[in-house]
Design brief:
The chain is elongated, with a radius of gyration of 27 Å. The chain is mostly helical and 327 residues long. Helix 2 packs antiparallel against helix 3 and helix 3 packs parallel to helix 5. The protein has 2 domains: 203 residues, Cation efflux protein transmembrane domain (Alpha-lytic protease prodomain-like), CATH 1.20.1510.10; 111 residues, Alpha-Beta Plaits (2-Layer Sandwich), CATH 3.30.70.1350. The chain is 64% helix and 9% strand.
Length: 327
C-alpha cells in the first residue's frame, strides 16, 4: 500500500510540474514564433494527457483481485503505456506537419534569446523528473512509471538538442534551420513513441521477456536442490508489478505428498525472496521415470535404475520446452 501511494504521489507531482512547464513552453513559443519551440510545447500537452492516463491506470492497478479479475488489474499498465505511446507519436507527426508548412511559409522569428533560456530550463526540469520516475519505476516494477519517465526524458533530450540547434540559428541568423530542427525532433519523438508502443504491445501479448526468464533460471540454478531433477515448461506472465510463473518440476516419484509439497514450497520461497516477493508461482509436479536416473543426484536412492552421469544446467532454452530433460 505504501508503494502504491508513493507512486501515485510521484505521478501527481509529475502532472503538476508538467502543467507549469507546458505554460512556460507555450509562452516561449508566443514570444519567439519558433516552430521548433512549438514542437517542444506540443509534446508537453501529450505529456500531460499521458500523465493523467498513467495516474488513472495506477489507481486501477492497485485494486485488489476480485472474481472478475482473478489475476488483479495490473494489465491496465500496458494499456496506459500504449495510450501514452500513441499520444507521443501523434505529437511527433503534428510537429513534422507544422514544421513542413513552416518551410513553405517561414514565420518571422523574434526574442530567441529569451525563448532559448525558457526552453533550456524547462528541458532540464523535465529530464530530471523523467530520470527519477524511470528509476523509481524500475525499483517498484511499474511499467507506467517507466513509460512516463522515458517520455519525460525524451522531452529533455529533445529540448537539449533544440536549444543547441536554435543557438546556431540565433548566432548564424539561419532562420530556415528552425523548421528543419522541428522536423528532426518530431521524427525523433515519433520514434520514441513507437518504442514505448512496442513494449506495451509485448506486455499485452505476453511476449517472453528474455532478461526476466534468464534471471529466474539463474536463481533456480543457484539454489537448486538435489530432488529438483529438472524444470521444464516454464512460462512467465506480467500483471503490472506482479509476476505469474507456471512451471513443471520433476521430483523423485516415491516422495510422499508432504515431502513433494515441501520441495515445491522451498522453490516458491526462494523465487519470491530473490524477486522481492512479487511472484505468484503455480508448479505442476512430475514423477521421475527411469531415464531421469542419469540426471538425478539424489543419494541414496533405493529405486535407481542407472548410475548418475551429470546434472544438466538449466537454461532458458531447456527450461521453456515442455519435456523432461535427458543426457
Amino acid at each position: 500500500m505504501l508503494a502504491w501511494k508513493f507512486k501515485i504521489r510521484l505521478l501527481i507531482l509529475a502532472l503538476l510540474t508538467g502543467g507549469l512547464l507546458t505554460l512556460l513552453k507555450f509562452y516561449a513559443y508566443y514570444i519567439t514564433a519558433s516552430n521548433a519551440i512549438f514542437t517542444d510545447a506540443l509534446e508537453s500537452i501529450a505529456n500531460l494527457a499521458a500523465g493523467a492516463m498513467a495516474l488513472y491506470s495506477m489507481w486501477v492497478a492497485a485494486k485488489p483481485r476480485d472474481v472478475e479479475h482473478p489475476y488483479g488489474h495490473g494489465k491496465i499498465e500496458f494499456l496506459s503505456s500504449g495510450f501514452e505511446a500513441v499520444l507521443i507519436m501523434a505529437a511527433g507527426l503534428a510537429m513534422v506537419a507544422k514544421a513542413g508548412l513552416g518551410l513553405l511559409h517561414p514565420p518571422q522569428l523574434r526574442a530567441l534569446d529569451l525563448g532559448l533560456g525558457i526552453t533550456a530550463v524547462a528541458g532540464a526540469v523535465n529530464f530530471g523528473m523523467g530520470w527519477y520516475l524511470h528509476r523509481q519505476g524500475g525499483r517498484h516494477h511499474s511499467l507506467t512509471l517507466q513509460a512516463n519517465g522515458k517520455h519525460l526524458m525524451s522531452d529533455g533530450y529533445s529540448s537539449a538538442g533544440l536549444v543547441l540547434g536554435l543557438l546556431a540559428v540565433y548566432l548564424g541568423r539561419a532562420y530556415w534551420l528552425d523548421n528543419v530542427l522541428a522536423i528532426g525532433f518530431g521524427a525523433f519523438i515519433f520514434y520514441t513513441g513507437w518504442r514505448v508502443f512496442r513494449q506495451a504491445i509485448s506486455g499485452v501479448m505476453d511476449e517472453a521477456d528474455t532478461q526476466l526468464i534468464e534471471r529466474v533460471v539463474g536463481i533456480l540454478n543457484q539454489h537448486r536442490r538435489p530432488a529438483w531433477i529438472d524444470a521444464h515448461n516454464l512460462r512467465i506472465i506480467k500483471f503490472g508489478p506482479q509476476l505469474h510463473i507456471d512451471c513443471h518440476v520433476t521430483l523423485p516419484w516415491y516422495l510422499s505428498v508432504q515431502e513433494a509439497h515441501e520441495e515445491i514450497k522451498q522453490l516458491e520461497l526462494i523465487i519470491n525472496r530473490e524477486m522481492e516477493n512479487r511472484v505468484e508461482v503455480f508448479i505442476h509436479t512430475d514423477p521421475c521415470v527411469p531415464t531421469c536416473c542419469a540426471l538425478c543426484a539424489v543419494e541414496p536412492c533405493p529405486h535407481r535404475k542407472q548410475a548418475f552421469q551429470q546434472t544438466v544446467t538449466w537454461t532458458p532454452q531447456n527450461v521453456m520446452t515442455n519435456r523432461k530433460h535427458q543426457v
